[in-house]
């Protein structure tokens, strides 16, 4: 059987990982400044993570959501403590798309309404509602097309206000990433997030903060929306939550009430996934990784700006992007092939940095030296 060929792949296969390093099948070492799409939050193969999952596997790996789950309660308590959202309620699932799907569905159940407001440049996943709210027609299948989604221009307060004035009583949810990731590291302004909060309150709509990529401590606060001083009604999360173990979830403000059977999943919140997520939060807390991500982000962004060769260096904490000028258009390829550094991209010419929140300063330095050398290569004409 062949693989269904949907992914553009780099010519590398990895066999081992530790901290911020990866090794390929020939034993060559790579620096990971991308964390496999922002997933590696506490570093590869963290000893506490391995220990917690191994120990859990030796006890019980899985049972479905039909029994008491003290591990889920332990996870909810720790997530409340580390995120500062103690009074929220946790529902666990398996991926970012599934988290957004559940968030939007719940918003619709709660309000009895159908309309979802999303923004230009947004990426919310590939399941039916999540992809319909994603601003990329090429990945929306005809069956996913929905008259229930309205796209408004990102960071345009006047357009948002005007839409609510006309259709506010139909809006079930507004969904927004605090920093658009796939969209190219575009930050939602504080004023825009505050307007969303105000209008959702005024018209009884649900504010969904997609924190799948920008959340879980990546920006130096637990949720990037926290920087704007707003509280969303639902936060969706996944990627960094399990450091590679598939787990996602939503946390839900106390005024949204559950009903039996309203949401559900077979695998979500199983014993192994909870053990992985608990290990991640314990490391984030014990190693003070939010502060570290904030500090390392400032260090990296200052250094990137100082090269003078990159355009629009932007981001927060360890969610950083910059535009690659035309004469360095091979930069990402050079970084991988010549300097063995993994980075991410966003169309048309953005490099995205999404390393582990535990990225040591020495490894950040290795990246910066590689970048300096790559930028000094003969320019592409
Ligand atoms: C902001 C955002 N939301 C949702 C998703 C979808 O997550 P998943 O691939 O786990 O379904 C992604 C994935 O890149 C994302 O960046």
Automatic annotation (TrEMBL):
List the keywords (alphabetical): Aminotransferase, Pyridoxal phosphate, Transferase
Taxonomic superkingdom: Bacteria
Q: One Pfam family this chain carries?
A: Aminotran_3
Does the entry feature the keyword DNA repair, yes or no? no
Q: Which InterPro entries match?
A: Aminotrans_3 (IPR005814), Class-III_PLP-dep_AT (IPR050103), PyrdxlP-dep_Trfase (IPR015424), PyrdxlP-dep_Trfase_major (IPR015421), PyrdxlP-dep_Trfase_small (IPR015422)
Which GO MF term does the entry hold, naming one? transaminase activity
User: Required cofactors, per record?
Assistant: pyridoxal 5'-phosphate
Which family does the similarity line name? Belongs to the class-III pyridoxal-phosphate-dependent aminotransferase family.
Name of the protein in question: Acetylornithine aminotransferase
Give the species this sequence originates from.
Taibaiella chishuiensis
Q: What is the lineage of its organism?
A: Bacteria, Pseudomonadati, Bacteroidota, Chitinophagia, Chitinophagales
